[in-house]
């Protein structure tokens, strides 16, 4: 359990701070919408998690850094008492960014000082704290992107893009790969970490199916747009069509046309021409479902996605390794992990036999199993090593500020 845990803990903590290096105190304070959180809040919340569940609960002599922080930086843990409302997190101008960084150092120093005396239950919570912080590293980047996109001068969070290995994009279309069918097992089982919602492992019966070998590209999405995809109600779920009409949706989030009619997309590296070879991203479940209908296909179920992905190494793919302005890369890679989260047609509900853990940490996933849909695979902003075939991400069907895309499925 403890082999490498301490090193991974401090490496994770360092990466979070490194991701905020380009930010001013103002950048780190502002909240662009209720679904996002300020960078300063992310930095503090993951620290409050460790302070509360590791230090407070397992180190008797520990005293809180600041008694106000439990109210300011609790997210949704009812068992932990009252908290500042989520939609008003951007109004927390104080403590300053510097004070939050001091808070992080204080908690890290306390954990290091007591490391050798932490019981196994506390070390398990350190592992959960690492995984929790990795989730917030991705949220930190996507929330910064949404914030900077509200600025009319479109500032770059980090002007130099990360250069990685490019996959080959096939403009002649993608192939299909048949997946295992019949009686299959899904869900996490075995050694290593997994979130509670990934289990128990159980059997499902799958009809014969195939998944597209790659995710849908920006070029393909433009065909959908040019063919009137956003204006044809027959392609859309009823709720999706109402959303399109109400919000005036006509393109993925962060896309805009210049005076010459060229499509541009705003990213963490600024405003750039849409890369036709890259996977489409920042789309909602509604948009993904409409595209699948237009393409005479469908979204995969999460069970289909998982059994098809189980044979691929989850540590490969375009994932977050270091600070920088991540963007999805060329869409032609068959590895299902990284680049963009892939919407499935499956509702986020508990698996047979699921039981939430006792206490406050039991509120982590189970309480959100209503009205959301499952995404699989991770994205360019997901820390490497964080995802696996059984990993279940989940968002509401209208949300698209995450790096969300799609991979088509069909019956065979």
Strand order of the largest sheet: 10-9-8-11
CA gyration radius, whole angstroms: 21 Å
N- to C-terminal separation?
43 Å
Tally of DSSP helical segments: 10
Number of strands: 12
Helix/strand-derived class? alpha+beta
Query: Helicity range of the residues?
Result: 25-40%
Mean pLDDT across all amino acids:
93
Unreliable stretches covering 5 or more consecutive residues: 163-171
Taken as a percent bin, the fraction of beta residues is 5-15%
The succession of helices and strands, N to C, reads HHHHHHEEEEHHEEEHHEEEEE
The main pleated sheet reads as:
4 strands, mixed
- Global geometry: globular
Walk me through this protein's architecture.
This protein is 32% helix and 12% strand. It contains ten helices and twelve strands. The protein has helices at residues 5-19, 25-29, 39-58, 69-73, 97-114, 120-149, 218-226, 238-247, 285-294, 302-309, and strands at 176-178, 182-186, 202-206, 209-212, 255-257, 263-267, 270-273, 341-347, 373-376, 393-395, 404-405, 409-411. It has a four-stranded mixed β-sheet. A hairpin with a 2-residue loop joins strand 6 and strand 7. Helix 3 runs parallel beside helix 5 (97-114). The protein is globular, with a radius of gyration of 21 Å. 41% of the residues are buried.
């Amino acid at each position: 359990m403890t082999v490498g845990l301490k090193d991974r803990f401090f490496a994770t903590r360092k990466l979070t701070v490194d991701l905020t290096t380009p930010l001013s105190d103002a950048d780190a304070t502002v909240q662009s919408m209720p679904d996002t959180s300020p960078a300063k809040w992310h930095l503090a919340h993951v620290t409050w998690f460790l302070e509360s569940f590791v230090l407070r609960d397992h180190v008797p002599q520990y005293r809180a850094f600041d008694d106000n922080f439990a109210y300011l930086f609790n997210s949704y843990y009812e068992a932990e008492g009252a908290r500042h409302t989520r939609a008003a997190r951007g109004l927390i101008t104080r403590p300053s960014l510097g004070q939050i960084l001091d808070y992080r150092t204080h908690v890290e120093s306390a954990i290091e000082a007591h490391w050798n005396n932490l019981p196994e239950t506390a070390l398990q919570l350190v592992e959960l704290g690492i995984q929790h912080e990795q989730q917030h590293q991705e949220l930190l980047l996507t929330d910064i992107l949404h914030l900077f996109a509200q600025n009319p001068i479109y500032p770059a969070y980090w002007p130099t893009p990360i250069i990685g290995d490019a996959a080959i994009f096939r403009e002649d279309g993608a192939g299909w790969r048949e997946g295992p069918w019949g009686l299959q097992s899904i869900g996490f089982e075995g050694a290593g970490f997994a979130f509670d919602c990934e289990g128990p492992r159980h059997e499902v019966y799958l009809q014969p199916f195939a998944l597209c070998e790659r995710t849908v590209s920006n070029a393909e999405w433009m065909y959908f747009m040019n063919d009137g995809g956003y204006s044809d109600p027959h392609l859309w779920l009823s709720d999706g069509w109402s959303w399109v009409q109400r919000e005036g949706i006509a393109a993925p989030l962060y896309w805009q046309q210049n005076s010459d009619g060229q499509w541009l997309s705003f990213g963490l590296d600024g405003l750039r021409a849409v890369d036709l070879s890259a996977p489409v991203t920042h789309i909602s479940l509604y948009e993904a479902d409409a595209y699948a209908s237009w393409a005479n296909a469908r979204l995969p179920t999460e069970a289909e996605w998982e059994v098809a992905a189980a044979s691929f190494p989850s540590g490969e793919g375009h994932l977050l390794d270091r600070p920088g302005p991540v963007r999805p890369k060329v869409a032609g890679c068959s590895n299902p992990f990284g680049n963009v989260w892939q919407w499935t047609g499956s509702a986020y509900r508990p698996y047979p036999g699921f039981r939430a853990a006792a206490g406050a940490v039991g509120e982590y996933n189970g309480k959100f199993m209503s009205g959301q849909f499952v995404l699989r695979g991770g994205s360019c902003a997901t820390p490497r090593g964080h995802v696996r075939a059984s990993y279940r991400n989940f968002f509401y069907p209208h949300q698209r500020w995450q790096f969300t895309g799609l991979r088509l499925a069909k019956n065979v």
